[in-house]
Automatic annotation (TrEMBL):
PANTHER family: PROTON/GLUTAMATE-ASPARTATE SYMPORTER, PROTON_GLUTAMATE-ASPARTATE SYMPORTER. Pfam families: SDF (PF00375). The chain crosses the membrane at residues 12-36, 42-64, 76-96, 136-157, 178-201, 213-234, 246-267. Gene3D superfamilies: Sodium:dicarboxylate symporter. This is Sodium/glutamate symport protein. One of its GO terms (molecular function) is symporter activity. It is a multi-pass membrane protein.
Amino acid sequence: MRGKIQLTTQIIIGMVIGVILGAVFGTKIAGVKIIGDIFLRLIQMAVIPLVFCTVIAAIGKLPIKRLGRLGVKTAAWFMGTTFIAALVGLVLGWWFKPGVGIDLKLNPELVEKLTGHPVATSDMILGFFPTNIFDALAKGNTIQVIIFALCFGVVLSKANSQQKYQGLVNGLEKLNQLLVDLIQLVLRLAPLGIGALIASVTAENGLTVLIPLFKFLALFGVGTLLFLAVLFGMIMIRAHMSLRTVMYGFANILIIAMTTTSSAASLPVEMHDAEKRLGIKKEISELVLPLGMALNSNGLAMYLALSCVTMTQFYGLSLSFIMMFKIVMLAIVACLGTVAVPGGGLGALTIIVPTLGLPLESIALLAGIDWFAGIFRTVLNVVGDTTITIMIAADEKQLKQVGLPVKN
């Protein structure tokens, strides 16, 4: 009986075949790009409703009392660490320029849109708030959709205090799961779609497209290690844990995160080890960790910011301060309610890239190495969630000392 080839392996094979075909046949096969474009559109069609349902359900199912002081504290930690992670990704990309070396062509109209008309900061901030949610949904304006979903979620949480709207919450969660299943179904086409996009890009630019990919992964790896060091340092100082205790507490979490590249798959292990190995009481871990999986993604934020900067370098665009600010803000809001399963980073990119005015095909190169990037993303996501849970537990006096296992 033949063993089933995992999707990750299929994507890598598709990317390799695409590179070979593009290098050998050149512009003769540039037309295969349409296959990749169809794949990207299929993913993009489900992302906005998925974000909409996930955020409302995540907030709406929480008791309103828990959205008080503890909720504000949790949200502050989420926003703070996500902002820093996005900023690290932005700085790494801006300083080391992993996207330099590829000269992709950008539509002149898009160049004018990105560089020709600076937008006032006040106008950009005002643009975060919708006047019509249906218009925001139709146009795929992610920031406005998330703002509405957050507000609606708070109202739903308050209205559901007597479980009168539990059916709506359950319905949103079921719809959310169906949308996740839809995206997972579309992702089965990833080997073909990504292979076609890579073949087209290679046909136009040659094998030089591979160099920035290695630079990108190396930078992301360095950023991950630096951020992990900061997170572990915070735990050791605030929770008074030794490095040995921290490493013991996170050992299983790190292994599961690296092997599954899924925050959702890592959550059961996080919740178990948060209590048994790290000493976090249930009333804190059961609130913060599931909410963190849906609304807090340090690794994804760093990845998205680094990816966006890299893509602008693909097209030789210079980054203004406003553009940098927009990238960081988009990286933060795109982490709210994104898919916590393998391939979720690809879906998040389809949110940000069009919002920045860049072509969707910009995703093709980075999509080819998404599994490798997914390891770094997931590790930072789950460690970030658990770190915040520890910090809140320590602040709320809900952290107990847990001894290390004694060797016989």
